[in-house]
Amino acid sequence: MAGKNTVTAVWEIVEPYVKELNLQLWDVRFVKEGACWYLRIFIDSENGIDIDDCEKVHRAVDPIIEEADPI
Questions:
Q1: Considering Cα of 11, then 8, then 26, then 52, what sign does the dihedral take?
Q2: Separation of alpha carbons 13 and 10, rounded Å
Q3: Considering the entire predicted model, what is its pTM?
Q4: Which of 40, 46, 52, 60 has the most CB atoms around it within 10 Å of its CB?
Q5: Cβ proximity of 21 and 14 under 8 Å
Q6: Which of left, alpha, beta for 57 (phi over 0: left; psi -120 to 50: alpha)?
């Protein structure tokens, strides 16, 4: 992933997994708040999103992001 910024790299990593869960990847942000950096992945669907959807996406993409280490 050399040469790609963090947001682009994460988007490319997680989008297939989000689609596999029949959800839409809405946005990816890597922002600094105070002294800390936060990676936020925004999802959506035609029926709305609930906490279970957030958990499914987190469990699906967390190990992949950890392995790819785009940050």
A1: positive
A2: 5
A3: 0.84
A4: 60
A5: no
A6: alpha
